[in-house]
Automatic annotation (TrEMBL):
SUPFAM superfamilies: Chorismate lyase-like, Winged helix' DNA-binding domain. This is GntR family transcriptional regulator. Residues 2-70 form the HTH gntR-type domain. It comes from the Bacteria. Keywords: DNA-binding, Transcription, Transcription regulation. It comes from Bordetella genomosp. 9. One of its GO terms (biological process) is negative regulation of DNA-templated transcription. One of its GO terms (molecular function) is DNA-binding transcription factor activity.
Amino acid sequence: MEPRYAELTRTLIKDIADGVYPVGGSLPSEIDLAGKYGVSRGTVRVALERIQTLGLITRRKRAGTRVEASAPRATEYGPTISTVEELVQYGADTERVVHSARGIVVDMALADRLGLPPGSRWTHIQTSRTNPLSPDYPLAWSHLYVPQDLGPRIRRAMEDNHQALVCDLICQATGRVVKEIRQTVRAVGVPAAIAQSLGTAPDAHALEFVRQYYDQSDKLFEVAVSLHPADRFSYTTVLQRQAPSR
């Protein structure tokens, strides 16, 4: 089920686009929005932070929340990814282009970095993802690693389905189930080799996501390394304090 703050974010974006809240006008207060949409004030606050990131509103103390645009900035995409379902939604909202695929033997450097068994054989697939609203500015460049025996089949499936996540394509082909995704995020510079393809300068600021996919047998079956230029991607997490145990 989609989190309430994500659902409210989509609703507010649609209402702004439809003119319910016109550009130049003000949004109702957090309390009024909470009452109108049947959510908590905290949920409203998170949703407003997300649409502010998209450039739709500005918020100032005592001045309220002003609507600045009727559509998100075309070169920026700001998903909140805290569950597998939200990761799937990210795939559904963007489009993938496959650029290359080749078989590799994992060396020690790659094994240490990605957790792949040294000496094992994998298919290395390079892709990009774009926001359909702004296809000339890729959101990400990805290096995907799948078991070599699945490589040709998954490559064909990726060509047929430009949105589905590769982990889902593998699960459909093999009967696997995604049990766990381990994710590491770090700040990096855009490598010169892909800077032109991303439409950015070499060493420009970027976020790198390394995701390792494990199946129901705790076996690693995919690694995805995705690079997102900082000027067109934001990543939001929500931390909730647990009630103290009694």
